[in-house]
Write a structure and sequence with these properties.
13 helices
């Protein structure tokens, strides 16, 4: 609404100046762009300002001024080029202005994004000095499961074996979240030694991981897939990274040191890369692989992230990355080994549509302030955290 209002102000000011005062088109457009730029900056700061990474440009007046001058010059140049000199019909003028708004608006959006990229990426790469995370155990591993009675017991036993050293030094647990299965998934997991959280009805991987993370008791919390597409030994790598001071350690299949023991289908590979491109709607960080099902978190960070998360489907990973950027947390990407995955519950077509829809929902929720931290729920306060939408500090 702010952007729409500012655009209307820009067009109305230019049209009024040229129609009622006879001002030269280029000069009238210059005045209109200046008025709209000031209004945009002020309104975004006072009306739309939340701690959204994509709105942090409003806190950099010098950068806003530089971008406004550049984009404004481009706007005036397009209008002048289209209408030329001499009298011009209002419809022609408005058509030229619409074209100028598209060109200059695109340049402005790219410029603001470039300005913010470095800031966000530097924040992600900066580890912070924090006291030990809270938790009864050293490590919790969350395994979302749906219809996995045939292999969940074996998966639990393999994870248990991989965590033998952690069991002996601080303790570990495996939390299997039965996401509304209509088979014996929960019973098989319990028999193999896992702690089971039951959801009913089936809600989706995001909901299952969220429930498991919020129920975990470890000082570091990780999640991995029930099919163990990533060998359980990878969990120890993630644990070490979090204990080394990172808030989040995310596995990535596209790291130069990652290995794939089985290639994904061409359709799945292409859809994955396309989805990573679409995450630019939400994210500023340069992540090589948002959808890798192997991630770990400090316990307090995990609770802060997942208590604010809303996405129940497969796009929950992107929502979590957005919250990491929003709360100025640190993140490191870790190479992984990927083996063949049999019996995956992912269906490329329907799930791809759902994931894109969820990306748009995350962007909308972010703009509405749904992820803002308040005084009460800011467990880990981000650097520079000043206020939220309603003025709490």
């Amino acid at each position: 609404m702010v952007s729409l209002g500012v655009t209307v102000l820009d067009v109305f000011t230019m049209a009024a100046l040229t129609t009622f005062t006879g001002l030269d088109v280029a000069l009238a457009d210059t005045v209109a762009v200046a008025v709209a730029s000031v209004a945009s900056w002020k309104l975004h700061r006072t009306v739309a300002e939340a701690d959204d990474p994509l709105l942090r440009w409003t806190r950099r007046p010098a950068s806003v001024l530089a971008v406004s001058i550049g984009a404004g010059a481009l706007d005036v140049a397009v209008v002048s080029l289209v209408v030329g000199s001499g009298p011009v019909a209002l419809t022609t003028l408005l058509g030229a202005k619409v074209l100028a708004l598209v060109v200059a608006g695109g340049a402005r959006a790219v410029a603001y994004r470039v300005l913010l990229l470095g800031e966000v990426r530097r924040g992600l790469a900066t580890r912070r000095s924090l006291s030990d995370a809270p938790g009864e155990l050293r490590f919790s591993v969350v395994v979302p499961a749906y219809g996995e009675q045939a292999r969940i017991a074996d998966s639990v036993r393999r994870i248990t074996a991989a965590l033998e050293s952690v069991h002996a030094d601080g303790g570990a647990e495996i939390v299997v979240v039965d996401d509304g299965s209509d088979d014996a998934t929960a019973e098989q997991a319990e028999a193999a030694g896992a702690r089971v959280v039951r959801l009913s009805p089936n809600r989706g991987k995001g909901a299952a991981v969220r429930a498991g993370v919020l129920a975990a008791r470890g000082r570091t919390v990780a999640f991995t897939d029930a099919d163990l597409a990533y060998p359980p030994s990878e969990l120890l790598v993630l644990l070490n990274q979090v204990e080394a001071g990172w808030d989040v350690a995310a596995g990535t299949r596209h790291h130069s040191e990652s290995r794939e023991l089985a290639r994904a289908s061409l359709l799945r590979w292409f859809s994955g890369r396309l989805f990573n491109l679409l995450t630019a709607l939400v994210l500023l960080g340069q992540y090589r692989d948002t959808q890798c099902g192997c991630k770990a978190f400090r316990a307090d960070v995990a609770r802060q992230l997942f208590s604010r998360a809303r996405v129940d489907g497969f796009a929950f990973d992107v929502e979590i990355f957005h919250l990491v950027e929003r709360y100025r947390l640190s993140l490191t990407e870790v190479p992984v080994v990927l083996r063949a995955s049999i019996g995956s519950t992912v269906r490329v077509g329907p799930h791809a549509v759902q994931m894109v829809r969820d990306l748009l929902r995350v962007r909308r929720w972010a703009s509405q302030g749904a992820y803002d931290l308040s005084t009460e729920d800011a467990v880990i306060r981000p650097a520079g955290w000043k206020r939220v939408r309603h003025g709490h500090t």
